[in-house]
Amino acid sequence: MANCSSVDIVLLLTCLVFFSVTYVSSYQEYTVTNPKVCSPSGKKGKIKLYEPNDAAIVEETRSFDKWPGVIKFHCQFEVKDARGDNDHAVFAVIQNLQFRETEEGCLDYVEFQSDDEHKSGKLCGKMGASIPRLIKEGVEEIAPYAFVSSDEIEVTIHVATKRLLPGETLDLKIAFTSARHCYRGRDSLPSYLINCGNSKHCINSIYANDTIFNCPFSGCSDEGGCPIAVPTYHRPSVGTSVTVGAITTVLAAFLLFFACIWVLRHYRKLCWAGDYNSQREVRMTPVSPVQSGPDSMEAGTARQEHLHGAVPSAPPLDSPVSTILPDKDMPPPYESLFPATSR
């Protein structure tokens, strides 16, 4: 297997990071164990809704699958619209909830509270927007699994210190969405907004038919069509309704990623590209220190022949060679100056 240089690895990681961030979800997604939501230190978590991610999902994944009940789970966090003006509101819609209840009341519960101290009461049992129900046309009251606040919502999630019995399960998924005034300063409803079933609150149209229930009113559902009364069903494991924009984004990300790989391979910047190893060997061939003598000359000649091909050989010995004439200014021989000594 070819060895990749650090430059090759950086180039590949750049392509992968670009591909991963090209498609961005419309939701901020958190689990109940995320420190930003439920801090181990007991500090109240905070989630801010802002464009383009002006919706968030908080859900339990596998934290409560085998709840031992050794300690209680008590978490509080706030969900707030980052703009904080009178034109916006915050919706909370429970997608799925399955918490234990007894004859005395809720053993585990979820509770919502608005900034004006209005509370939803403890919610438990089995409920949620994704549970099959019949929408009553014309009803604009808040559904029992939803909550609305003009500024922020304080959420409390409590799981009791009691282990799960065989057959018991805990499930929780809540969607929070920033809503805005539909007609504030406008004569008609903009195309990027959809009405949630009343004359005041609208949400971004990107949240329509995305298999997440965002509207909190009983008389209308952003997943079933407004204002026609239709039944809604449990969210499928794989979304059956995907917007054209999302599909286009994913396809564009794939094309750009493979184009990046092709360019790197074409210019032989990848460790599996053709002739990469041969070029690497040539670039990294060690050069020995300069030596004198016939051995070094022969080694240099052999190296030149290896890198550049054969070089012309030396001229034959019998070729004419210019004779060096003696210099006229050379001193006379020693014998001619001292004849006696030479004898």
Main β-sheet: number of strands, strand sense, barrel status?
Answer: 8 strands, mixed
The arrangement of helices and strands along the chain is HEEEEEEEEEEEEEEEEHHHHH
CATH class: Mainly Beta
Rg, rounded, reads 39 Å
CATH level-two architecture: Sandwich
Q: For the terminal residues, how far apart are their CA atoms?
A: 80 Å
Keywords: Membrane, Signal, Transmembrane, Transmembrane helix
Region (Disordered): 286-343
Transmembrane segments: 242-264
Signal peptide: 1-26
Structural write-up:
- This protein has helices spanning 6-22, 244-266, 276-283, 294-308, 334-337, 339-342, and strands at 28-31, 45-49, 55-59, 73-81, 88-99, 101-102, 105-106, 109-114, 125-127, 133-134, 146-149, 152-159, 171-181, 193-195, 201-204, 231-232.
- It is an alpha+beta fold and 343 residues long.
- The protein has a single domain, classed as Sandwich (Jelly Rolls).
- Strands 1, 3, 5, 9, 11, 13, 14 and 15 form an eight-stranded mixed sheet that branches. Strands 2-4-12-8 form a four-stranded mixed sheet, with no helix packed on it.
- The chain is elongated, with a radius of gyration of 39 Å.
- Mean pLDDT is 74; it is low at 17-23 and 227-244.
- Residues 1-26 form the signal peptide.
Summarize the entry for a quick read.
This protein is an alpha+beta fold and 343 residues long. It has 6 helices and 16 strands.
Main features:
transmembrane helix; about 350 residues; signal; membrane; Jelly Rolls; 16 strands; four-stranded mixed sheet; about 25% strand; alpha+beta; transmembrane
